Amino acid sequence: MTKLLGEDTFDAFLMEKALVQMAVTWEADGHLNEKFYDPETWKDPSSRPYDLVEWKAVRPQIYNIIRGRQTPAGFHFVLHLKPEIQKGMLERLGTPELSSFISAFLINIRYSEGHVRIVTGTSYKSFTLDKSADKFWDKTFIRFLTGKAIDYEPMQQ
Asked: Does residue 63 lie within any of the structural domains?
């Protein structure tokens, strides 16, 4: 959990959803709230480059909820790879045209019953039979985990 909450390991991601089950359940929607911002700030893309909150911005708050003597009963985070990183990855794959079909490369991180499970996913804008992006994201994320010295066991299919 240190790599997830205590370090910048996952700071290349945006948070769509967070759910932390402690004595009470804390839930956060990562979509930015237009009503919070003044109209000029909301319309300025340089002050709000994403529709979702950056993981690095909420990570300390989530850490403060979780820290303590008792392990959470569970948690679930849905994170999206930042669009500019996703675009660069697809260009390196040699299929920049897939950007028009893909909304996001995702990871679902769940903790329950003493185990953390991370499942990759791809959100598509429209239907496609081409699953090369899914396979690419799976392989890329495994390289990411290995590069960050995060132990894992692949799930059996």
From this structure: yes
DSSP 47-95: T---SBEEHHHHHHHHHHHH-SSS--SEEEEEEEE-HHHHHHHHHHHT-
Domain count, the chain: 1
- The band of 157, judged by pLDDT with boundaries at 50, 70 and 90, is low
AA letter at 2? T
Q: Are 51 and 34 in contact (CB under 8 A)?
A: no
15 phi/psi in degrees, rounded to 5: -100, 125
Token digits of residue 115: 């185990």
Q: pTM value?
A: 0.91
Tokens of 142: 């495994």
| Percent of the chain predicted with pLDDT > 90 | 64
Record the tokens describing residue 116, joined without a space. 């953390």
Query: What are the φ/ψ torsions at residue 127 (nearest 5 degrees)?
Result: -70, 140
Structural domain range at position 70: 2-147
